[in-house]
Design a protein that fits this description.
The chain is mostly helical and 186 residues long. 61% of the residues lie in helices and 0% in strands.
Length: 186
């Protein structure tokens, strides 16, 4: 049986509310996630388990680097990245968004490898998987991490698009008057 997911027409999508645009990105401490993957990697055998653990560690490293980069950029510019002076605000956060995109891709890879390990991962009897690090829980957690990373990227995209969107709703152009514009050919 094939399930089809149809997207609603774009004109039916409600505009984002001010509160939704102002929500902070869902950054979170990563230590517990890292510890669970370390336990899983140590307790299981097989190439899928090692590759899933590797993908998860890469995703965690990319997210941690994205958070450090976002904080460094904010410190350098003395505030939110949406106020970078003459530079378009989307340029400042692009490296952060790229790292988050890579992290989401690695979370997908880890989830796919976990799925391939089903039904039961092979663990040693001396070091069984603790609750919360079993395959089904870890698979659900991995997919949730991927969703959360995309939510962070989405929040950052909204944050740096907001000034241009606000200018458009106020009837102003999103670029300075001296900015060269492409002319539309009839």
């Amino acid at each position: 049986m094939t399930i089809r997911y149809d997207l609603p027409p774009s004109h039916a999508d409600p505009p984002p509310t001010q509160a939704a645009c102002a929500m902070p990105p869902p950054w979170m401490p990563l230590d517990a996630v890292l510890d669970c993957w370390a336990v899983f990697g140590k307790a299981t055998h097989g190439s899928e388990a090692l590759r899933a653990t590797s993908a998860a560690f890469v995703a965690l490293a990319e997210e941690r680097e994205a958070l450090h980069m976002a904080n460094r950029l904010a410190d350098l510019h003395g505030g939110p990245l949406s106020a970078l002076g003459n530079e378009p605000p989307f340029l400042g956060q692009q490296p952060v968004i790229e790292l988050l995109t890579q992290a989401a891709t690695h979370w997908y890879e880890a989830a796919y490898l976990l799925w391939q390990m089903r039904p039961i991962p092979h663990s040693t009897e001396d070091d069984p998987l603790p609750p919360g690090c079993d395959l089904d829980t870890l698979l659900g957690s991995t997919l949730a991490q991927r969703e959360r990373v995309w939510a962070i990227a989405h929040a950052l995209l909204g944050e740096h698009a907001r000034p241009s969107r606000d200018r458009l709703t106020e009837g102003m152009t999103p670029w300075p008057a001296d900015h060269p514009q492409d002319e539309v050919q009839p």
